[in-house]
């Protein structure tokens, strides 16, 4: 899997590197072939396909930033995730690891079952629950 920031490996992110993100000024990873520096890749888990592995670094980094950089998610916090795309699923797993209570939405019961299997505390099908955002689930 490619590192989202190709030349940043530790410490505070240098401002000049923030513009060198894959899919930004650099080409993204939705391609047949790509070349990356050796230090800027990691072995993908065997359970992931190529498309999942290519997108994971961006989705996980986005979720991490929202949960732990923009906010300081801690045990007992309530995290609401809208949808079951890559960022939300990464957010679900990171929030649960931090001890948060997780609510996730989807229009698919199959995806909501998967989210529950991954640890979601509450799931909401927004197609079958009108005005779900005004209800108090907790």
Describe this structure in a few short sentences.
The protein has 138 residues and is α/β, with parallel strands linked by helices. It is built from three helices and three strands, in the order H-E-H-E-H-E. The radius of gyration is 17 Å and the shape is globular.
Word description of this protein:
- By secondary structure, this protein is α/β, with parallel strands linked by helices.
- The chain contains 3 helices and 3 strands; from the N terminus they run H-E-H-E-H-E.
- The chain is globular, with a radius of gyration of 17 Å.
- Strand share of the residues? 5-15%
What percent of the residues sit in helical stretches (DSSP H or I)? Answer: 25-40%
Unreliable residue stretches: none
In this structure, how is the largest beta sheet organized? 3 strands, parallel
CA radius of gyration is 17 Å
H/E element order: HEHEHE
DSSP helical segment count? 3
* Spatial strand sequence of the major β-sheet: 1-2-3
Shape: globular
Mean pLDDT figure? 89
**What is the CA-CA span between the terminal residues?**
38 Å
Please identify the structural class as seen in this structure.
Answer: alpha/beta
Number of strands: 3
Secondary structure: elements and pairs:
Elements: H1 50-69, E1 78-81, H2 86-97, E2 101-106, H3 109-117, E3 122-125
Parallel strand pairs: 1-2, 2-3
Fill in the keyword field for this structure:
138 residues; three-stranded parallel beta sheet; 30% helix
């Amino acid at each position: 899997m490619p590192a989202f920031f190709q030349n940043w490996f530790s410490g505070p992110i240098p401002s000049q590197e923030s513009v060198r993100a894959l899919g930004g000024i650099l080409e993204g990873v939705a391609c047949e072939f790509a070349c990356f520096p050796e230090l800027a890749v990691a072995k993908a888990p065997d359970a992931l396909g190529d498309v999942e592995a290519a997108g994971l670094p961006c989705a996980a980094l986005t979720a991490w930033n929202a949960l732990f950089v923009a906010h300081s998610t801690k045990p007992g916090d309530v995290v609401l995730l809208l949808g079951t795309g890559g960022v939300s699923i990464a957010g679900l797993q990171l929030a649960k690891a931090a001890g948060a209570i997780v609510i996730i939405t989807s229009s698919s019961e199959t995806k909501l079952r998967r989210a529950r299997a991954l640890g979601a505390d509450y799931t909401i099908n927004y197609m079958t629950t009108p005005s779900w955002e005004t209800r108090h689930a907790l």
